[in-house]
C-alpha cells in the first residue's frame, strides 16, 4: 500500500521577494539567499483553506471514481475558513465523495508525514478501506503581522492546496515506516494569542493585533530550538529508515518543509545528500503541513525519483513535533 497519486493547487497571485522586502524591511538579497525565498503564492480573498484543499483534491479525482474513496482526511492548516468547524466535511461534499467518511488531523506543519502513517495504518487495520484521500489547504499568508518584529520573519508563510491518494493497490510507491518526536516544552512559543478561550475575540484583541501569529520570546525560542532542531530532524529520518529496514546510505531523495537555507543545507550535510537530491520550495514558501506533499509532487514531475529509490518526507511543527515517513518509489 502506498501513494498512488499527488496533486497541488497553486494560487495565481505571486508575491516576490522584492515585494516582501518592502513589507519586512529586509533586503531582497537576504530574503532570497538566507531565507531561501524568491516568491510565494497568495490566495484571492474568495478562496479559503477548504477551497484550496478542494481544488487539489479535484485533480486526484480526475483519475478515480469519487465514489470509490472510503475516507477523506484533512491534514492542512488549522487556520481555516471558520473556528470550531470541519473543513473535511466541506471537502467531502464538494468533491462528491459521498461514500467516504471524513475527519481532520491537526498538528500544524508536521502533519503530512503523520497523515501518511495514519492512512497506512487504517488501510492495514480495516479491510473495508481501500482508498484514503488526504487533502490540505493553507492560507497562512493572512496570519503574518509585518509590523511585529517578533514574528515577521515568518514572511515565508504562503498559500496553496495539496492532496494525496493512498490505496491498497498502489503501484507507484510503497509507504514504509515513520518516526515522530514531540518536545512539548515548546508549547507556548508560537501561537495566535487572540480568538481562543484565553483571549476571546474583543476590541482589545483586534486593536493589539492579537489575531495574528506571534512569538512571545523569539530569543529564548531560538536558543532552545537551535540545540535540538537538526538533531531531531536527523533522528526521525534515521529512525524511519531503520524501522523500514533501509540503511541511511540508500536514501536518495529528501522532501522537507521550507526552512531558512542554512538549516536546509545543514540537514542535507548531516544525512549525506546534496541539494540536487532534495526539493527546496524557493518559489512556494512554507504552507503549513503541505510542504512535503508539494515536494513529492514536484519531485515526480521533475523526474527526481527513479524506480526503487528511497525517499523521506520530513517536517516539523511548532509545539514542537518532528516527523518523517519513508517511501519506496516504483514510478
From TrEMBL:
Pfam families: ACP_syn_III, ACP_syn_III_C. InterPro entries: ACP_syn_III_C (IPR013747), ACP_syn_III_N (IPR013751), Thiolase-like (IPR016039). Keywords: Acyltransferase, Transferase. One of its GO terms (molecular function) is 3-oxoacyl-[acyl-carrier-protein] synthase activity. Residues 241-329 form the Beta-ketoacyl-[acyl-carrier-protein] synthase III C-terminal domain. GO terms for biological process: fatty acid biosynthetic process; secondary metabolite biosynthetic process. SUPFAM superfamilies: Thiolase-like. This is 3-oxoacyl-ACP synthase. The lineage of its organism: Bacteria, Bacillati, Bacillota, Bacilli, Bacillales.
Amino acid at each position: 500500500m502506498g501513494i498512488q497519486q499527488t496533486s497541488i493547487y497553486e494560487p495565481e497571485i505571486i508575491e516576490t521577494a522584492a515585494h516582501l522586502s518592502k513589507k519586512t524591511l529586509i533586503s531582497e538579497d537576504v530574503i532570497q539567499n538566507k531565507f531561501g525565498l524568491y516568491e510565494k503564492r497568495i490566495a484571492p480573498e474568495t478562496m479559503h483553506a477548504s477551497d484550496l484543499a478542494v481544488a487539489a483534491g479535484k485533480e486526484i479525482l480526475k483519475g478515480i471514481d469519487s465514489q470509490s474513496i472510503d475516507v477523506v482526511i484533512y491534514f492542512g492548516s488549522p487556520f481555516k475558513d471558520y473556528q470550531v468547524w470541519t473543513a473535511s466535511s466541506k471537502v467531502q461534499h464538494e468533491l462528491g465523495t459521498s461514500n467516504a467518511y471524513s475527519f481532520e488531523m491537526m498538528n500544524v506543519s508536521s502533519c503530512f508525514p503523520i497523515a501518511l502513517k495514519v492512512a497506512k495504518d487504517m488501510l492495514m487495520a480495516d479491510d473495508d478501506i481501500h482508498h484514503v484521500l488526504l487533502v490540505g489547504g493553507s492560507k497562512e499568508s493572512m496570519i503574518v503581522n509585518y509590523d511585529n518584529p517578533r514574528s515577521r520573519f515568518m514572511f515565508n508563510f504562503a498559500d496553496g492546496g495539496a492532496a494525496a491518494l493512498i490505496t491498497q493497490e498502489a503501484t507507484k510507491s510503497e509507504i514504509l515506516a515513520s518516526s515522530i518526536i514531540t518536545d512539548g516544552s515548546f508549547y507556548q512559543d508560537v501561537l495566535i494569542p487572540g480568538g481562543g478561550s484565553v483571549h476571546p475575540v474583543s476590541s482589545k484583541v483586534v486593536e493589539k493585533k492579537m489575531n495574528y501569529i506571534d512569538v512571545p520570546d523569539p530569543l529564548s525560542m531560538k536558543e532552545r530550538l537551535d540545540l535540538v532542531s537538526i538533531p531531531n530532524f536527523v533522528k526521525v529520518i534515521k529512525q524511519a529508515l531503520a524501522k523500514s529496514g533501509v540503511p541511511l546510505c540508500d536514501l536518495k531523495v529528501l522532501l522537507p518543509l521550507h526552512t531558512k537555507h542554512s538549516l536546509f543545507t545543514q540537514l542535507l550535510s548531516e544525512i549525506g545528500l546534496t541539494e540536487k537530491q532534495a526539493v527546496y520550495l524557493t518559489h512556494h514558501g512554507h504552507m503549513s503541513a503541505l510542504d512535503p506533499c508539494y515536494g513529492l509532487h514536484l519531485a515526480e514531475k521533475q523526474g527526481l525519483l527513479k524506480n526503487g529509490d528511497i525517499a523521506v518526507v520530513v517536517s516539523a511543527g511548532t509545539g514542537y513535533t518532528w516527523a518523517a515517513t519513508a517511501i519506496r518509489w516504483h514510478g
